[in-house]
């Protein structure tokens, strides 16, 4: 192999186009835990590689020709398709569809791998079903359209369809001119091996925490002023991280009071705090949450297998999870979510099934089942190849069957790149216990105001346009450049000025 191509990378040649995103997503579905190196209109390294993928678009006098070639070492496969005239800039979606299907076909033949989501690469499959439901399409019509366009399996279509049916009436209840408030606490007791979030251990970040809390309260005060000036309604509040309960009860109470003092919460439908890891949960913190209006908490086991907990760097046991859960119930929380991850190192279908049985026995109000995702920023990524034989599909299928059998219905879903076996993340809930924040952030029809390190503000206009304003990624940046960061918030008034103009124009029609 040519020295210019690193041994651990997989070269991908794009000739006559720059449609990198869809190409990479399809490749990842069949060739996971690999770093792809893209070359544009450059075939100089092509013949030096025993592993490569090449996707070419060539214009003829009357037609457009698409070529795909893939080599995985032992054999090389090629495929071609001729279409009517298509141009990558003008006809991007059509070109992406042709390329995706050609690449999917050749990789399926090469590997024999069954990819249940077909060529669908978006992270929000439920939105596609919701839009078809809005057009009054029947179930069989929706399945026919999506199977033809994306080659999605019947099982995944049914899961997405069931999720859409739960979401649709709940999303319709969203108040006009409402927003969700996200508060970021990027600290954890330790970093789990699968985690790629910007989270700092309490031990490392203790010296930053007091100033971070002070500035976060100041940012909440600024947000409160913006919400009042714009006449907006706070619909949901969500504390995430990190692990919000990794801070002291005193700091936690200070933040909760900052929310209560700076925002009108009389219209609030949900106030959620990720209590997260049981080794951060104390009776004092739970009482602080309860007394300050929190209505929903998330206690996240990830697994009830003690060996697997040790494998991922957790400092607690399954017994600690049960104790924390029972403590929260005793204090009066009647809306508790529990997160699980399918495919963790050392887990098996049998042990994951046992985790599901133990969680179901506890009777939480909702259960979110994530599939392990091998992210580059996570420590686990460096050993990602070792996870590829993990029978995660059987684990996911057990959750799809067992949770509805016990009264939990799928209510929100999203997908990620680098997820094992191209699976998905699904939230299941008892009726009336669905998380509005989770649904709305996936549906992208409500603005989210983000406060704190690495928080992202997402401003949604009536025409569907989305403007994002991102806070600095690391706590020390957030602290050092706080004033400059707050200056960025002035852009919000420009966006809401456009929204007001559009609302006036619609009213006059």
Number of strands: 18
Helix count? Answer: 17
Overall radius of gyration = 24 Å
- Report the biggest beta sheet as strand number plus sense, adding barrel if it closes: 9 strands, mixed
Q: What is the mean pLDDT?
A: 90
**What general outline do the C-alpha atoms trace?**
globular
Low-confidence stretches: 1-7, 376-387
Helical content class: 40-55%
**Sheet with the most strands: spatial strand order:** 14-15-13-12-11-10-9-6-16
Could you say which structural class the secondary elements and strand pairing correspond to?
alpha/beta
Strand content: 15-25%
Structural overview:
It is a single chain. About 40% of the residues lie in helices and about 20% in strands. It has about 500 residues and is of the alpha/beta class. Helix 12 (about 350-360) packs parallel to helix 13 (about 390-405). Among the domains are: about 10-110, Double Stranded RNA Binding Domain (2-Layer Sandwich), CATH 3.30.160; about 125-170, no CATH class; about 175-295 and about 435-509, no CATH class. Residues about 1-5 and about 375-385 have low confidence and may be disordered. Strands 14-15-13-12-11-10-9-6-16 form a nine-stranded mixed sheet, with helices on both faces. A five-stranded mixed sheet has the order 2-1-3-4-5, with helices on one face. Strands 7-8 form a two-stranded parallel ribbon. About 40% of the residues are buried.
């Amino acid at each position: 192999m040519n020295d210019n191509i690193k041994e651990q990378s997989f070269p991908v040649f794009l000739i006559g186009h720059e449609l990198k995103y869809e190409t990479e997503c399809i490749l990842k579905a069949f060739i996971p835990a690999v770093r792809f190196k893209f070359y544009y209109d450059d075939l100089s390294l092509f013949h030096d590689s025993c592993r490569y993928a090449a996707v070419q678009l060539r214009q003829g006098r009357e037609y457009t020709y698409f070529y795909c070639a893939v080599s995985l070492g032992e054999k090389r496969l090629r495929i071609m398709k001729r279409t009517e005239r298509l141009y990558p800039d003008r006809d991007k979606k059509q070109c992406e569809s042709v390329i995706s299907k050609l690449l999917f076909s050749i990789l399926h033949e090469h590997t024999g791998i069954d990819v249940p989501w077909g060529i669908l690469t978006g992270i929000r499959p439920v939105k596609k079903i919701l839009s078809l439901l809005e057009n009054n399409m029947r179930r069989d019509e929706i399945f026919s359209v999506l199977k033809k366009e994306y080659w999605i399996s019947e099982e995944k279509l049914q899961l997405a369809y069931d999720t859409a049916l739960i979401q649709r009436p709940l999303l319709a209840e969203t108040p006009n001119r409402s927003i969700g408030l996200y508060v970021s606490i990027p600290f954890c007791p330790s970093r789990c091996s699968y985690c790629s979030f910007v989270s700092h251990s309490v031990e490392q970040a203790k010296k930053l925490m007091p100033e971070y809390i002070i500035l976060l309260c100041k940012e909440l005060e600024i947000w409160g002023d913006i919400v009042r000036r714009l006449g907006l309604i706070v619909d949901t509040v969500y504390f995430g991280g990190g692990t919000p309960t990794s801070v002291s009860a005193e700091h936690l109470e200070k933040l909760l009071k900052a929310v209560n003092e700076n925002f009108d919460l009389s219209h609030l439908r949900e106030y959620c705090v990720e209590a997260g890891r049981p080794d951060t949960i104390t009776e004092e913190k739970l009482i602080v949450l309860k007394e300050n209006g929190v209505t929903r908490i998330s206690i996240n086991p990830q697994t009830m297998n003690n060996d697997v907990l040790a494998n991922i760097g957790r400092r607690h046991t399954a017994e600690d999870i049960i104790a924390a859960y029972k403590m929260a119930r005793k204090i009066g929380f009647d809306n508790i979510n529990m997160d699980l991850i399918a495919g963790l190192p050392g887990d098996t279908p049998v042990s994951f099934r046992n985790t599901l049985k133990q969680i179901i026995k506890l009777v939480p109000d909702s259960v979110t089942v994530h599939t392990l995702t091998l992210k580059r920023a996570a420590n686990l990524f460096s050993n990602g190849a070792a996870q590829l034989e993990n029978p995660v599909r059987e684990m996911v299928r057990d959750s799809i069957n067992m949770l509805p059998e016990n009264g939990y219905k799928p209510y929100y879903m999203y997908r990620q790149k680098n997820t094992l076996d191209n699976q998905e993340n699904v939230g299941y809930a008892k009726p009336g216990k669905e998380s509005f924040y989770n649904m709305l952030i996936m549906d992208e029809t409500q603005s989210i105001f983000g406060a704190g390190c690495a928080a992202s503000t997402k401003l949604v206009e009536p025409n569907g346009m989305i403007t994002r304003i991102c806070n600095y990624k690391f706590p020390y940046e957030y602290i050092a450049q706080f004033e400059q960061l707050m200056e960025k918030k002035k852009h919000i008034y420009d966006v809401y000025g456009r929204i007001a103009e559009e609302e006036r124009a619609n009213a006059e029609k």
